[in-house]
Amino acid sequence: ATCGHGCKYGECMGPNKCKCFPGFTGKTCNQDLNECGLKPRPCEHRCMNTHGSYKCYCLNGYMLMPDGTCASSRTCAMVNCQYGCEEVKGEVQCLCPSGGLQLGPNGRTCIDIDECSTGKALCSYNRRCVNTFGSYYCKCQLGYELKYVSGRYDCVDVNECVTTTHRCNLHAECLNTEGSFKCKCKQGYQGTGFDCA
Question: Using an 8 Å Cβ cutoff, are 45 and 59 in contact?
Fold first, then answer.
């Protein structure tokens, strides 16, 4: 398909036939479509045309809902919720944006639930729980590091003897263990392994 005149905001579908992208119109798709003039109107209260799109606005005392409608926000504004609210049977309830948060005693602000201490967190045996605001994540236990092994990420034991993160005495041998290491004084020396004499 060739369009001798070109298609500015669209694509050529046949001989000199343009298919315009949403928000544009005209033979060469070079004109902005005024969505505010369409029937049915896209916005309940006020509509503002923009290049290739449009914006909805609500009258004072109303708030814009995701579907473009306007809902009375007088009651919501009065409650002064931290993260927004919903109206159920005329009652205003503040909302928290994640399951890891709960409404605080004042009914307006959200406080964190520590999933690590409440036992709600699920981490595999070689990972430890780290609490975050509104959630948590699982981190490798101390002495383990995250590595990509046979197609998946796993916590693998760190060999402290190879990485020289051990503090064994000059006259001691380093022995790697699962998640840790041990120091053993060499023959002819005695002590903890950290101190050998």
Answer: yes
Which CATH number belongs to the domain containing residue 191 in this structure? 2.10.25.10
Closest CA to 1 of 24, 18, 25, 20: 18
pLDDT of residue 153: 81
Containing domain of residue 90, as a range? 36-112
Contacts of 31 (CB under 8 A, 6+ apart): 24, 25
Residue 150 lies in a domain: no
Three-state secondary-structure class, residue 131: strand
pLDDT tens digits for range 5-60: 888 899 999 898 999 999 999 999 999 999 999 988 888 888 888 888 988 888 77
Nearest of 192, 196, 197 to residue 182 by alpha carbon: 192
Helix ranges restricted to H, 28-80: 74-79
First to last CA, the chain: 88
* Other Cβ atoms closer than 10 A to 114: 14
pTM: 0.45
pLDDT tens, 117-136? 988 888 887 788 999 988 89
Cβ atoms 131, 114 nearer than 8 A: yes
